[in-house]
């Protein structure tokens, strides 16, 4: 870090002025969340947590991540269309919205294109939804062309039998699902771990060695906890060096991963049980810490040692067996204090960030 930047980071008056400008700018540009205290009120909002300064990201790695995204789109699509692979892989393991403003942003963009949007919970769809003889989906009398899931990615999102009935109704319908259930399952941790096994990517890209190499270059080490010799080796490996690994359950949303001595506690209890198959083990990534300020409502301003994670967005559309659209459509950099092992923006640990390409 240059002497000049160190001086800027420690200039309290300058940092305070920049902080006020940054918060106002965030509010002006719609970087908003409802508050933790009043998550259901549209009248009390604050800025979504973010970093005061952008985080340096190597240019080559940034473009590598963007370039491989369309291959990942194809991989997910091919996995989702292979029910035998999904069944073989997944058979081995045992409503408050605070970030509503990104939902509204999507809705507003659609309304600009004269595409009406309605927001409904699963129970609402069960009560007011129906399929006609052609399996067209209707909700409150309106035919639905696209079902876009903002929820339903974890078992606890299905709080009643009505929730499951609504999901089944939508899956059976002619409406485009984003994602459908097979694509949802293709994104599970267990499928990720299986794809890291030798020869599995080649199964989906039999004549594309360069594509396989580009995808595999992004993988961290992923290890099975299936019952048997290989899974037993993984357990022993994790117990011997827990700080080198992350134990991951089949959950999304941040704050679910297990680290350090907690890995030992979980695996000591589960090492002889089939319940261990609900997890996978991954090599712990060790990014270089960067100094930055994390701006959160009500939190004191202080300089933190931070770790960042780059996520890349992809979008594809398939008609029958033909992929008619496949693009990389954006990125998201999330940053958290290095004192936190796990957690995303929605979980209240990470904050929004911007990459500074270097």
Automatic annotation (TrEMBL):
Reactions accelerated catalytically: gamma-L-glutamyl-L-cysteine + glycine + ATP = glutathione + ADP + phosphate + H(+); gamma-L-glutamyl-(2S)-2-aminobutanoate + glycine + ATP = ophthalmate + ADP + phosphate + H(+)
GO molecular function, one term: glutathione binding
EC assignment: 6.3.2.3
Pfam families membership: GSH_synth_ATP
Gene Ontology cellular component annotations, sorted alphabetically: cytosol
SUPFAM superfamilies: Glutathione synthetase ATP-binding domain-like
Keyword match Magnesium: yes
Keyword Nucleotide-binding: yes
Record note on cofactor: Binds 1 Mg(2+) ion per subunit.
Residues engaged in binding Mg(2+): 252
Essential cofactor(s): Mg(2+)
Residues where substrate binds: 334
Sequence positions that bind ATP: 189, 248-257, 259, 282-285, 309, 336, 342
Coiled-coil parts of chain: none
Annotated pathway: Sulfur metabolism; glutathione biosynthesis; glutathione from L-cysteine and L-glutamate: step 2/2
Class of the enzyme per the UniProt entry, highest EC level: ligase
UniProt keyword annotations, A-Z: ATP-binding, Glutathione biosynthesis, Ligase, Magnesium, Metal-binding, Nucleotide-binding
Protein family (similarity comment): Belongs to the eukaryotic GSH synthase family.
Function: Catalyzes the production of glutathione from gamma-glutamylcysteine and glycine in an ATP-dependent manner. Glutathione (gamma-glutamylcysteinylglycine, GSH) is the most abundant intracellular thiol in living aerobic cells and is required for numerous processes including the protection of cells against oxidative damage, amino acid transport, the detoxification of foreign compounds, the maintenance of protein sulfhydryl groups in a reduced state and acts as a cofactor for a number of enzymes. Participates in ophthalmate biosynthesis in hepatocytes.
Subunit structure as annotated in this protein's UniProt entry: Homodimer.
Xref: NCBIfam families: glut_syn_euk (TIGR01986)
Protein name: Glutathione synthetase
Organism field: Cyprinus carpio carpio
């Amino acid at each position: 870090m240059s002497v000049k930047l160190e001086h800027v980071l420690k200039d309290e008056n300058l940092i305070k002025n920049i902080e006020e400008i940054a918060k106002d700018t965030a509010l002006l540009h719609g970087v908003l969340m409802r508050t933790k205290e009043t998550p259901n009120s549209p009248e009390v909002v604050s800025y979504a947590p973010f970093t005061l300064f952008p985080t340096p990201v190597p240019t080559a790695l940034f473009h590598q991540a963007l370039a491989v995204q369309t291959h990942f789109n194809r991989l997910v699509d091919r996995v989702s269309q292979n029910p035998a692979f999904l069944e073989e892989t997944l058979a081995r393991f045992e409503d408050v919205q605070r970030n509503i403003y990104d939902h509204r942003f999507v809705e507003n963009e659609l309304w600009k294109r004269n595409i009406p949007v309605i927001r409904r919970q699963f129970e609402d769809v069960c009560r007011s939804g129906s399929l006609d003889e052609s399996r067209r989906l209707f909700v409150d009398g309106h035919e639905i062309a696209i079902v876009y899931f903002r929820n339903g990615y974890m078992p606890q999102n299905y709080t009643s039998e009505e929730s499951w009935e609504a999901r089944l109704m939508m899956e059976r319908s002619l409406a485009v699902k984003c994602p459908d259930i097979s694509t949802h399952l293709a994104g599970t941790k267990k499928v990720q771990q299986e794809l890291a096994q030798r020869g599995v990517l080649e199964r989906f890209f039999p004549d594309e060695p360069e594509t396989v190499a580009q995808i595999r270059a992004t993988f961290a080490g992923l290890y099975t906890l299936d019952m048997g010799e290989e899974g037993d080796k993984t357990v022993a490996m994790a117990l011997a060096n827990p700080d080198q690994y992350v134990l991951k359950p089949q959950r999304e949303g941040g704050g679910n991963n297990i680290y350090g001595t907690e890995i030992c506690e979980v695996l000591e209890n589960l090492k002889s049980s089939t319940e261990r198959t609900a997890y996978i083990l991954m090599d712990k990534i060790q990014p270089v810490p960067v100094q930055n300020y994390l701006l959160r409502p009500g939190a004191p301003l202080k300089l933190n040692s931070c770790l960042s994670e780059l996520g890349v967005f992809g979008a594809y559309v398939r008609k029958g067996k033909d992929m008619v659209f496949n693009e990389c459509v954006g990125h998201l950099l999330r940053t958290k204090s290095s004192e936190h092992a796990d957690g995303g923006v929605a979980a209240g640990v990470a904050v929004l960030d911007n990459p500074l390409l270097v």
